[in-house]
Amino acid sequence: MSQTEYNIRNPEALDDMGMEQTPVVLTRWVTFTVADEVYALNVLDVQEVLRAAEITPIPGAHPAIRGIINLRGNVVTILDARVFFSLPEKPFDDDSRIMVVELRTGEVAGIVVDSVAEVITLDEDDVNDAKRTSNDEGSEHILGVVPQSSDKGNDKLIILVDLKGLSDLSTK
């Protein structure tokens, strides 16, 4: 079936003027907080979320690397999102979580965040490009921002991050 036939038979694919609409691209994101800011990772990159784990420090490691854990027989590097985004450090508490993600290299790493909130669905058209405002290494992982209105009337931004390149930290 050609695209034209589909549009004629499917009037929802046409806008008010009879022009073909562009398809809506929806993606799912896991939201989390770091220092009262809301961030999100693509749900496909997140393998699991841990409540707590015994983290073994690594002397001489990059400052953002908190250490390593044993996750079902696998050694997983743990990073601190606060240090990574150049924010003040905070001790692990009851709300803190470790988000286990797969990196571009296929390695698995954990990221300590203040809390994990929910899974949300976003329309790709709602994502605004993030303008580079600083040269710190955390800002290069910002994909974009999405305005989010709350029922309390205050608008917040959700910062979309791509942490698949974190394996680069081991070479710095």
Q: What would your notes on this structure say?
A:
- The chain is mostly beta strands and 172 residues long.
- It is 6% helix and 42% strand.
- It contains two helices and eleven strands; from the N terminus they run H-E-E-E-E-E-H-E-E-E-E-E-E.
- It has helices spanning 3-9, 81-84; strands at residues 26-34, 37-42, 46-50, 65-71, 74-80, 97-102, 108-113, 115-123, 128-129, 142-149, 155-161.
- The chain is elongated.
- The termini are far apart.
- 20% of the residues are buried.
- Mean pLDDT is 80; it is low at 1-10.
Using brief descriptors, characterize the structure shown:
5-stranded mixed sheet, 2 helices, mainly beta, 172 residues, 42% strand, 6-stranded mixed sheet, disordered N terminus
